[in-house]
Every structure is written in C-alpha cells, then in structure tokens.
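As agreed, record passed on underneath.
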Amino acid sequence: MKSVIERYSEAKEDHHQTMSASAEAKLWQREAGSLRQQLHNLQEHHRQLLGQQLSGLDVKDLQSLENKLEMSLRNIRMKKDQLMIDQIQELNAKGSLMHRENIELYNKVNIAHQENMELRRKVYGHGVNEHPESSKARGNILNTENEDALVTLELSQPQSAQRDKSETPSIG
C-alpha cells in the first residue's frame, strides 16, 4: 500500500513539474477572467443597491432587493438607537454626579453660613445678625431641596478703622 501511495505522489509531482508555461498562462487567464466576472457582478449589485440600473430586474429580484435594503435600514436604526441610549445613560450619570456635587456644595455653603453667623454673634454679641457698618459681599444660589427658596450668602468684615490698635492681636 505504501509503495502505491509513493508512486502516486511521485507521479503527481512529475505532472506539476512538467506543466508547461503555456498551460500555466492559460490557468492564470481563466483565473483573471473569473475575477473580472466577479468584479462586474459586484459592481452591478452595488449599482442596484444604490437604485441605479433596475430596469433589467423582475418583480422577484426587486422584492429581494427591497427586503435586503429594509434589513440594512433596520440594522442601521438599531445601531443608532443603541448609540443614543448609551449617550443618554452617560449623560444621566453625569447629571446625577453633578446633582450630588451640587448638594454637597450647598451643604458646605450652609455650614459656612452658620459658622459666619456664629462668628458674628461672638464679635458683635448675642442676638445681632448684622453689623450696620460692615462691608458685605453677597451671592445667591438656588436651594436644591426647595426650588422656590433662594439662599443668600453674605461675607462681611467689620469696619475697624476706628478701633484702636490695642484691640488688634499682635504676633510674636
């Protein structure tokens, strides 16, 4: 059995080696012709997908082409919808993060306001909310818990031009 397989292999190799240049040229010509035909078919199919040169098609071919185009459109729409859903989820996550940061900042502002009021009470005495001669920096922000409530921020420094220098703490 092995000798038969060896003789077959040798004969096959001899056949490939003896193939003439003209036979090889004919093989490549057939291959080139086949590739040209495939290219022509692909170009024709492409034109048909673009809606050009439809006159040679019968009803069955036109329905097949229509079904292919509808499936392609459906796939495109599904991809577009998925991208939009992903973007919406990303924007919702960013909005949620910004809302949390806004609440944290609001809480920090309230703490600063309370500390400012405590400092005023210490400086001006109990029951005094505001010193009439103080300079103020004001700002407004929207309360995130109650949208109708406007929070007013005030920073004030007392006018110390008339204080004497003995009240000013010294360093050293």
In short: Residues 130-138, 161-167 have pLDDT under 50 and may be disordered.
